[in-house]
Specification:
Number of helices: 21
Number of strands: 12
Distance between the termini: 34 Å
Strand order of the largest sheet: 5-4-9-10
CATH class of the largest domain: Alpha Beta
Helix content: 40-55%
Oligomer: single chain
CATH architecture of the largest domain: 3-Layer(aba) Sandwich
Largest sheet: 4 strands, parallel
Strand content: 5-15%
Shape: flat
CATH topology of the largest domain: Rossmann fold
Length: about 550
């Protein structure tokens, strides 16, 4: 990244003159007038070592090649060299160096036998974008769909199937029928607490590999995965690994035994618990009936990923309603020495909760869940109507616009923000939307197709401030992508800014009709770079460009 390169250059210059090794923090200013990059290194060295600010500035001005710098009080404003920008526009893009860190991103992780909801879509879409960004930045990255395929809920579901279900009916519409049975169990459980005990008994049999129960469990898994894969195909999500809780179930007992041996865990009322914080309820890792929980399986997962897979960075993309339990799990993993903090970093990305317009959280138990398929169907209808208004009948474009709108609505806000489910806002194709960016791509594509016999030997002539600022913004694409590793909304904001700046130039200045051939060539070259940036940027968000719109 240019920021990293610049930081290293300044650090080396400072060490060469002062024999001081200090981290040089580089940021991107919000205002163009403050430079392409800025640093507080002068303030830092003046405060810490009493180095004269004017002397340091003069030294850096003379020795920092390929940049122009200004000093404002104790801050450095750093501007990209014009020749570097010209080279970039001509296609000499900086190569991203391969990273040595191994990264695993866990996301989606739906629960078996439940519909794929908007909540599941949120973790899937955010997590997939994070995975794509890390891959673009050349980390050794993989992803994992840690499905919820183990737990007492299967005892509940198997009980419901055996007592109220009909396989011939279930097989026609598995997920909806299983969801109905799951809801029915919880309603009946409220009236008859004995059902809870029976469900636990069935889960215990599952844990003990009872053949009949395992056979039912496998059917439920297959029905669910077939449904999930249909959704993933539609969203163009691909997983390298799908290792559910069941994969780690046999490792869970060892976690419990180790915790008790090390006296990190204690027994309370027959259950095994770990106190990670005196002010919080303990983390239960084994129930009084001897069965394990998802917390136990997740502790085994951390150990496996850190010690067996040797992952350096493990990113969990989950809902904020799970934040406390995951933080407890991270602390328990630390206490149990399941990973080496010097070799492995655990990162938690907890997205906001999807809520109904009245503020109520979705719940499969209450039956007020909204399925992703329903939103996709509605989005397709609106996208189709949008294109029909423009006289376009193209199913491929409809799909790309519809799916893009859903993804963009989730990615455009910081992941920690709650998302209120409202049809008009979710499917608004005007304003700061994916449609606006896709349309800008179509506009660029049209100009490029009409640009024939372009002479690449012509001089680049940036004729106004708007073009200069756009060119500088394009140059910093990789820096913005790097900043968006854990917050894809940063990339969204960047792409919107690129499009707004380009469309302003498009509306104010002629491109194909420009008489000055050097200026014309420059504007077409800017158009080509905007087009490439949009395509690459949208791809990192999991969104496709369209050819017609």
């Amino acid at each position: 990244m240019e920021k990293d390169l610049l930081s290293k250059k300044i650090q080396n210059l400072i060490y060469k003159k002062y024999k001081i090794l200090e981290t040089v923090e580089i940021s991107i200013p919000k205002e163009d007038s403050f430079g392409d990059y800025s640093s507080n290194i002068i303030l830092k060295l003046n405060s810490k070592y009493d180095i004269d600010k004017n002397e340091l500035f003069e030294y850096l001005s003379k020795n920092l090649e390929h940049y122009k710098i200004e000093a404002v009080n104790f801050f450095l404003n750093i501007f990209i060299n014009d020749n570097s920008i010209i080279d970039y526009l001509r296609g000499n893009k900086p190569e991203i160096k391969k990273r040595s860190e191994k990264v695993l991103v866990e996301y989606s992780s739906p629960n078996i036998a439940k519909p794929f909801s908007v909540s599941h879509a949120t973790t899937t879409i955010i997590g997939d974008s994070i995975y794509r960004i890390y891959k673009y930045l050349k980390y050794e990255v993989t992803n994992d769909n840690h499905i919820g395929d183990w737990g007492v809920q299967f005892g509940k579901l198997i009980y419901a199937i055996n007592n109220w279900g009909d396989y011939s009916i279930i097989e026609k519409d598995p997920i909806n029928e299983l969801n109905k049975l799951y809801i029915k169990f919880h309603k009946e459980e409220e009236k008859n607490p004995e059902l809870t005990i029976k469900a636990k008994e069935l889960y215990k049999k599952l844990s003990e590999n009872d053949k009949a129960i395992i056979s039912q469990w496998e059917k439920i898994i297959k029905w669910s995965m077939d449904n999930f894969n249909n959704v993933y195909d539609l969203l163009e999500i691909k997983f390298e690994n799908t290792l559910g809780e069941s994969f780690y179930a046999n490792m869970a007992k060892q976690i419990i035994n180790n915790a008790l041996e090390k006296k990190i865990a204690t027994k309370e009322n027959g259950a095994v618990v770990i106190y990670t914080d005196p002010n919080k309820k303990p983390l239960i890792i084994e129930k009084s009936d001897g069965t394990t929980l998802y917390s136990t399986h997740d502790l085994a997962t951390i150990e496996y990923r850190a010690q067996k897979l040797k992952e350096n960075i493990i990113i969990y993309e989950i809902g904020s309603d799970q934040k406390n339990i995951i933080e407890q799990m991270f602390k328990a993993a630390e206490l149990l020495n399941l990973y080496d903090k010097n070799k492995t970093q655990l990162i938690l990305i907890s997205h906001g909760i999807i809520k109904l317009s009245g503020g109520e959280k979705f719940s499969t138990r209450k039956g007020n869940i909204i399925k992703l398929e329903e939103i996709i169907d509605e989005s397709f209808k609106r996208a189709k109507g949008l294109l029909e208004e423009r006289g376009i009948d193209n199913e491929d474009s409809v799909k790309k616009i519809a799916i893009g709108a859903i993804k963009f609505n989730i990615l455009k806000r910081h992941y920690s923000s709650d998302i209120i489910f409202e049809w008009n806002k979710l499917l608004d194709f005007n304003g700061d939307t994916s449609v606006y960016i896709q349309y800008t791509y179509v506009r660029c594509n049209s100009i490029i197709q009409k640009s024939t016999n372009l002479d690449s030997q012509k001089d680049i002539s940036i004729s106004n401030e708007q073009e200069q600022n756009l060119a500088r913004l394009l140059y910093k694409f990789n820096d913005y992508v790097d900043s968006a590793k854990l917050s894809p909304n940063i990339l969204v904001d960047y792409l919107l800014t690129v499009c707004k700046r380009y469309n302003f130039i498009y509306s104010k200045y002629p491109i194909l009709k420009e008489k000055d051939q050097n200026i014309k060539y420059t504007r077409i070259l800017l158009t080509k770079n905007v087009q490439e940036t949009i395509k690459t940027g949208l791809n990192l968000l999991g969104i496709n460009v369209v050819k017609k719109m």
